[in-house]
Amino acid sequence: MRVAVLTMFNGLAKTYSLVSVVEEHLHMLLDAGVKVKLLVSQDCPDSERFGIFADDRLEWVKITNRLHGQQIHWMDYSQPTGRVHEAFYDEAETIAESLYEALKDEDVCIMHDILYQGWHLVHNVAVRIMQRRLPNLRFLAMSHSMPIPRPARMVWPLSARYTPLPNTTYLYPTQSGLAALARQYNVPLERCRAISNCCNPYAEFSQELQQLAAKTDLLSPDIVAVYPGRLTPGKQQNKAAALAGALAAASGKRVKLVFCDFPSLDIEAAAFKRMIVETGIHSGIRKEDIVFTSDAGWPDGFPHRSVMELFTISNLFICPSYSESFGLIVLEAASRGNFIVLNEAVPALEELGKQLHAYFMRWDARNIGYDTQEHYHPSERHYMREHAAAIVGQMEQNPVLHAKTIARQRYNPEWIWQHQLKPLLEEV
Question: Which residues have C-beta within 8 Å of that of residue 326, sequence separation ≥ 6?
Answer without folding.
Answer: 348, 352
